[in-house]
Amino acid sequence: MKAIQLFAKEDLKLVELPKPSIQADEILLSCKAGLICGTDLRMFANGHRHSPDALTLGHELSGVIESVGSGVGGNYRIGMRVAVAPNYGCGLCDSCIGGNTQSCQDFQALGIQVPGAFAEYVVIPARAIRQGNIVELPDHVSFEEGAMIEPFSCVYNAFERCHTQVGDTVLVIGAGPVGLMHAMLHKAAGAGKVLISDLSAARLAMVREFDADFIAVSGTNTEAEVMQITQGKGCDVVITAASAPAIQTLSFELAALNGRVLFFGGLPAGKEMVSLNTNIIHYKQITVTGMSGQNLRQYRTSLKMVANGQINLKKILTHSFTLDRYQEAFSCAKSGDALKVGFVL
Asked: Distance of alpha carbon 135 from its chain centroid, rounded?
């Protein structure tokens, strides 16, 4: 089979591997969609740390079940269209028992520690099957949408922590695909105004085309524009959907009285120490929170929202490639000219 593997820093190759065989407690998936994430781009730039060997990337995935091990329980069947949550834990620790397998100390993920979906086939490990990581896709949900359930469910995890109320003003800093997912979800929840800020004029143009209700805000003049739009009150919810320390510092200035600030995603190594004016948090009574990944309840709820037509992810995927065009695909994803980029088999 064909697979895209990362050997070292910026050393990505298309290789030919044997079609995987499975154990009795595993499932073999024929990959149909594998999307490029910011994590994949960071691994490409810095190398992967979790395996001494080459690693097949890809953790945003969907496909068709090719074969089912004889010891696999449940209703899994050959030919079933599925999406797969990539993160799985030990199944025994307090985090796993509490439903947060993504926070397990023995956490693993497809495309991060074990072979992922940038290949014609991927093995779904026994632990992931037992924990319920495989979900069936309704016929009307495309494989591309199914693969986007993973990033969207991370957004839904963040949404649950924002406690957005009907009529709230929400600001998303970062107009990438994840930023747009945040905006879509908060609009669907009844936010009165949804603002999106970005330094890139091209990204802001995409925002305006994506949804006429979204308010594009210049990243070079964010505070002044936000205060003008909100009549000096600031935003009820501020989400930092870009990995830049400066926007975390700025977020408190942009928040309204009793506002909520959510840091989405981590900062690069060496830049994680951020100077914050805690008096602003104190006097504005701001709630500050973060998030990491998603649990399986959030993953399944996210699929339901897409399947029910509450969230339309179709416009997020702007560029798709075959595996043999991997160099073009990664260049496209890095350029910032696209929203979501992926491999569709």
From this structure: 17
* Nearest alpha-carbon partner for 158 in 302, 315, 308: 302
**pLDDT for the residue 169:** 98
The position carrying tokens 């594998």 is 34
Which residues of 184-300 form beta strands (DSSP E)? Answer: 193-198, 215-218, 235-240, 255-263, 287-290
pLDDT of residue 337: 85
DSSP output for 235-301: EEEEEE-S--HHHHHHHHHHEEEEEEEEE-SPPPTT-------HHHHHHHT-EEEE--S--HHHHHH
Helix axes 177-188, 201-210, angle to 10 degrees: 30
User: Could you tell me which residues come within 8 angstroms of residue 122 by beta carbon, excluding any fewer than 6 positions away?
Assistant: 20, 28, 29, 31, 56, 58, 61, 63, 110, 115, 116
Condensed to tens digits (0 to 9), the pLDDT of residues 244-270 reads: 899 999 999 999 999 999 999 888 888
> pTM (2 decimals)?
0.95
How many helices (DSSP H) and strands (DSSP E) are in the chain? Answer: 11, 18
Residue 199, SS3?
Answer: coil
From residue 207, alpha-carbon distances to 8, 109, 238 in Å are: 35, 31, 17
Q: Which of the residues in the chain have pLDDT under 50?
A: none
CB within 8 Å of 11: residues ≥ 6 apart: 47
Q: Which tokens belong to 69?
A: 């091990």
Q: What is the predicted pLDDT for the residue at 295?
A: 94
- In angstroms, the CA 208 to CA 268 distance is 29
Residue carrying the six token digits 């397998």: 101
pLDDT for the residue 51 = 65
* CB-count exposure of residue 70 (10 Å: 0-12, 13-18, 19+): exposed
In this prediction, residue 243 carries a pLDDT of: 86
pLDDT at 73: 84
Give the mean pLDDT of the chain.
95
